[in-house]
Design goal:
Elements (H helix, E strand, L loop, with lengths): L2 H19 L3 E5 L4 E7 L6 E7 L11 E5 L5 H17 L6 H25 L3 H14 L21 H6 L10 E3 L3 E3 L2 E9 L4 H10 L3 H4 L3 E9 L7 E6 L6 H11 L5 E8 L8 H16 L20
Antiparallel strand pairs: 1-2, 2-3, 3-4, 5-7, 6-7, 7-10, 8-9, 8-10
Helix pairs in contact: 2-3, 3-4, 8-9
Length: about 325
């Protein structure tokens, strides 16, 4: 792959990361492709500053460089975290991985805080338990399965191309929908659905078809994302997503589709809430359901089982 192709992939990844993380994403030096991203857990208790720089041969043959800044981290904690990031790189050689790294760091922060809360509880700190419970309710407001109605919300495309396709006179039919295996974690059930689409009008047809099932219609969340490549305009995509009450879940799923370059497909992940808060694990399960279906149905290009060294990381 040429340097120009690598640079194009980097530009697309940088644009997506800036859109997802907003003010937490900062340009340090655009010429040398160096950036800062501030990563915190859902309760904003601790934060890690990650500096990343993109070498010319990233993502296809080399990892990005990074430095983690978190003076409050213990040495063993930082070593374990860096090891996890290296594993992610080795499992995804040739793909854009900054998003995967950021979400792994966020999961690490969440798990670390949960361990500290448990320790405080053991020591009799009941106030910390109450605050944790209230914050969980605020960040993951969920009702019982039978009390939730499915919301038929409008798609949120990134560009105006959605309107162009909607106003076309093309006749479209509902495509065949394939259903993935269900997955259970702490009584919450996740199931993915996938369909091949070529027109944005098919998005609503797929959602309506799924909601003919009373079980799916009554689910706590029906999160979806789609990407369609334009037949007439090169490098133009019609794309959109919907969280359906699970904040940022749809945008994370769309970003997954962007970094694996999945086109002409819609993925819907249904969640039935089981009464136990899952924290950041729920996002991992949603994306895993989506990625598994994309892989099973041929929307993820093979990495040809490439092997490579672990991330060439520097320590602060």
């Amino acid at each position: 792959m040429s340097a120009d192709e690598n640079q194009t992939l980097q530009d697309e990844e940088i644009e997506a990361l800036a859109a997802i993380y907003g003010d937490d994403w900062e340009v340090v030096d655009s010429e040398s492709r160096k950036y800062h991203i501030r990563i915190s857990d859902e309760k904003l208790k601790n934060a890690i500053l990650m500096e990343v720089s993109f070498p010319p041969d990233y993502p296809k043959t080399a990892p990005p460089q990074y430095i983690l800044s978190a003076p409050w981290l213990l040495r063993d904690e930082k070593t374990n975290l860096e090891g996890s990031l290296a594993d992610i790189y080795c499992e995804n050689i040739g793909e854009s991985i900054i998003y995967l790294w950021v979400e792994k760091i966020r999961e690490f922060l969440q798990e670390r805080n949960e361990l500290h809360v448990k320790a405080d509880t053991t020591a009799g700190n009941s106030e910390a338990v109450i605050q944790e419970h209230m914050l969980d309710r605020k960040t993951e407001e969920e009702d019982e399965i039978l009390d939730i109605d499915f919301l038929n919300v409008q798609e949120k495309p990134d560009k105006c191309h959605f309107e162009e396709q909607e106003n076309s006179s093309d006749d479209v039919n509902c495509p065949e929908i394939h259903h993935g295996k269900s997955f259970v974690d702490r009584k919450s059930v996740f199931q993915g659905h996938i369909a091949s689409i070529s027109h944005t009008k098919q998005v609503k047809l797929v959602l309506d078809s799924l909601c003919q099932s009373k079980k799916i219609a009554a689910a706590t969340h029906n999160i979806y994302a789609y990407r369609i490549s334009s037949k007439d305009k090169q490098d133009v995509f019609y794309q959109g997503c919907e969280d359906d009450g699970e904040t940022q879940a749809g945008s994370r799923m769309l970003h997954l589709m962007q970094i694996v370059d999945a086109c002409n497909v819609i993925v819907v992940v249904t969640r039935w809430y089981g009464g136990v808060h899952l924290g950041p694990d729920r996002f991992k399960h949603i994306n895993n359901c989506a990625r598994q279906l994309l892989d099973e149905h041929g929307y993820i290009q093979s990495k040809n089982e490439k092997k490579g060294p672990k991330s060439n990381k520097r320590r602060s």
